[in-house]
Every structure is written in C-alpha cells, then in structure tokens.
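Lecture notes, unit on binding sites. The following record was shown on slide 14. It pairs a sequence with 1,6-di-O-phosphono-beta-D-fructofuranose.
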Amino acid sequence: MAPFLRDGRSMLLAYDQGLEHGPSSDFNDRNIDPAFVMDLAVKGGFNGVVFQKGIAEKFYDGKVPLIVKVNGKSGLVKGDPVSRQVCSVDYAVSLGAKGIGYTIYLGSEREAEMFAEFGKIQEEAHQRNLPAIAWVYPRGAGVTNDTSKEIVAYAARTALELGADAAKIKYTGDSESFSWAVKAAAGIKVFMSGGPKTKTDEEFLKQVKGAVDAGATGLAVGRNVWQHQDPLAMANYLKKVIFEKKPIEAVISA
Ligand code: FBP
C-alpha cells in the first residue's frame, strides 16, 4: 500500500459512482466532468484516486497514484448483487495503476463468483507487486443490517482471509464498534467508505475521526467531497483530521 500512504495514513478519492449509481443520481454540472475530479484529486492532496478503466484511459493525468476498479455493476439490476470483472490486471497496469480495486458483495447469493474472481485478481496483482484492495459490502437477501458491528467486522475479516492488502468497509456508526472491524482485519489496511453526502460537515468529519481513532488507515471518499459546495475545503478538513489528528471543533472553526 506504500504509494497510497502518508505517515501510514491515507485519503483516497473515489469516482466510480457514474457506473455504480448513474449520473442522475450523484452528479451535477460540475462533478459530472471527470477532469474536474482528477484536478480535485491533485489540488486536494489526495493519496490516490479510484477510477474505472474508461475514466482512467481518458482522464488520468499521472499526478496522483491510481487505483483501477477492475469490476463494476450498474445500479439498475435488482436481486442479490454480483459485480464481475471488466478490466484485466495487466490492462490496469498499462493505464498506470499502482493498486487494484475490486468490490465483493458479502452475503449475496452470488458471492462465490466474486470470491473466485477476486482470488485470481489478488494473485495477479501480487505477482506484479501491486496491492489488492477489496471493497467489501455486505448486501443481499441474507443481510439485514449492513453497518452492524458484526457484519462490518465480517467484511473486514473477509478481506483479510481472501488476501486483500486493504479493506474498504462501511462505518458502523461509532468508533468503539468500528475498532472491532479493525481488529478483525488483523493488520491489513482499513479504509472507511464515505457514503452519501451528510447534511453537515461536522457529521461526516465525526465519522472519519471515529474511524481513524479506531485504527483505520483513513478513508476512500467520493460524494462527501465532490458533491460538497467547496470540495477543496472539505479535503483540507479531512487532511487535518486524518494526518494532523486535530479535533473537529478546531478543524471547522479554523
Ligand atoms: P462514496 O464516498 O461516494 O460513498 O464512495 C465510496 C464508494 O465505495 C464508491 O467507490 C462506490 O461507487 C460507492 O461507494 C458504492 O456505493 P453503494 O454503497 O451505493 O454501493
């Protein structure tokens, strides 16, 4: 994970929502432009940017380490989710990837397909000395609460067991319960997943602080930054919480 770390911590900018959710759901006139988000990753001091291959091919500028998400799905399909490979590890490397991202829907009736596919991708990534980062999202008919302490820890542990170098998981709602997920990850890096834009900056920063206090490496965030009216201000808040370990009151009032 070294290319993505600063003093052992990290802040990644995720921008695969155009596929996962669709442009009408998440984008406005400004952030629908991938060039805007690429620029934001650079100016905001992010330690990595996450793109699908189509965006990476056309908009990646090489100024921030790249993670290519090599699987994906749309938000249109109903039923237990499956996300299949859409980009090879070799092709991601040719685009400049320094890390490989893959989403697993833990608990889906189709999780076995994603486990098997990630298994191969993890081996290919490691053969090329690249970290494999698993987005592990509990989802499907068998999952009733995807942010409970137990299920988020299960997600973190799944990433460890399947050989991921980092687990990207949802926040549980408080630092104490999230620390159980960090323990379950047993030393692999843990990234909190940003989630939908919160009403206030304070609300989001509390989640981030709770995660890093629990031992998370940092976060991989999309909407709470590029939907923000001042994305660079939010990026600065995040840096203060993650790297400078400042209390939220000091960050927001500064
Ligand atoms: P956000 O910070 O916008 O939540 O992005 C993080 C992320 O993992 C994206 O990489 C991905 O597109 C999205 O969340 C998936 O969200 P969902 O929970 O709706 O599947």
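Take-home: The chain has a mean pLDDT of 97.
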